[in-house]
Amino acid sequence: MNLLEKIKMQKKEPVKEPQAPSNWIEISHSISRRYHFQSDGQLSVSVVDDSRSVAHRTVDTFLNKFFPSGYPYSVNEGYLRYTQFRALQHFTSATLSVLSTQSLLFAAGLRPTPAQATVVSWVLKDGMEHVGKLICSNLGARMDSEPKRWRILADVLYDLGTGLEVLSPLCPQLFLEMAGLGNFAKGMAVVAARATRLPIYSSFAKEGNLSDLFAKGEAISTLFNVLGIGAGIQLASTICTTMQGKMIVGPLLSVVHVYGVIEEMRATPINTLNPQRTAMIVADFVKTGKISSPADLRYKEDLLFPGRLIEDAGNVKVGRALHKAIKPSKLVELKQIFPEEKFLLSQESKWVEMVLEHNATGEDALRGWLVAAYAADMEKSFHEPTTSALQAAYKKMNDVIDPFLSELQVKGWHTDRFLDGTGSRFAL
Question: CA–CA separation, 72 vs 305, rounded Å?
């Protein structure tokens, strides 16, 4: 057999392709798992060995049940602190609910057991929720703009309603009035809390996992509501069997409850643009040249009085009607200074009025805010006339706006919308 025939025979022999293993073992974080392809092609996983301690396994099980998949890498900064105070808030809220319902039934002339109070509480509070929905139905835009503020207000309303219920045995002749007003306040609180839930959860979503975040967040709420009801039953059977006990425990629980929701909201990095956050972003950029992320600004936000003016951002007020904010004689002049822009700026004695077109986005609001901030800085430093300062500031804004917007989006800000609540806009 010569060399040529040998080569031909080698070519005819089939080449055997390497087969993938049907099963294998992977070891990760002290856990050995066997992976096996079944006959139908499905991959099955089984734990072969788990050398973790009992405490470690318990913690991991808790995280899998009550935290989003991939935690902490699948959520934005601040989620753990938010969850801790959310748990505290729901625990104290549920405890207060049991005590208030017990007081209501006392005021009505009944002497219920603590267990009966927990059952009746759900019936009593649901009635006024429909009225609260009607009252709050026109406040949705405000809640989108300031979800943190309205979430805190919701819990203050809830505690106000609960307080009226707790005090109802002191004046049983006014039982219907106090019970109705208390449940009305609690009904409004429920609507406000639900309306602000989505923007708050959205701020933590990092990998398109909003549904997972929502489900795990509600699981945490349910768990600590149940624990709070248990604590309420214990208190109602012991310390709070008398009004004196309720007068001491009720305010303490309310203070802890409101503190919990305030800290919960402070930890939340809202990433949408509203007047306050836009002004803070622009002020930091004009002062330092750096752009703050949502996590950087979360503890700087004023949750109670968000409408305050920020001098370094040009003392801008936004949302007034066009005919109130800008004199008709100045309208043509301002449109010439800002051609094809979706904002108008008018200098007043102590602040700058900004009016947006009806389809203006967050980017348009940022452009206007930058112009106002640069113009204010130029007037202060060089004492330029208002019109000249606006023209120079507009040119400076156009020089920096593209990298500014790109960096904003990299930091996680959503610039496609500007949430100015019920602010007025114009169309020309």
Answer: 32
Query: Helices (DSSP H) in 205-327: which residue ranges?
Result: 210-237, 243-266, 275-288, 294-297, 322-325
Helix/strand/coil for 234: helix
Across 311-402, the runs of DSSP E, i.e. the strands, are 316-318, 343-347, 352-357
Query: Three-class SS string for 130-190?
Result: HHHHHHHCCCHHHHHHCHHHHHHHHHHHHHHHHHHHHHHHHCHHHHHHHHHHHHHHHHHHH
CA angle in degrees (0–180, nearest 5) for 102-103-107: 120
- Bond preceding residue 72 cis, omega within 30 of 0: yes
Residue found under tokens 């700087």: 300
* % helix, strand, coil for the chain, step of 5: 65, 10, 25
Of 238, 258, 303, 257, nearest in space to 276 by CA: 303
The 10s digit of each residue's pLDDT in 43-55 is: 566 666 666 677 7
Amino acid at 423: G
Whether the pLDDT of residue 385 is over 90: the answer is no
CA distance 110 to 332: 72
pLDDT of residue 56: 76
Tens digits of residue pLDDT in 271-295: 999 999 999 999 999 999 999 999 9
Question: What does the pLDDT read at residue 283?
Answer: 95
pTM: 0.76
Mean pLDDT over all residues of the chain? 82
Between strands 316-318 and 414-418, the pairing is unpaired
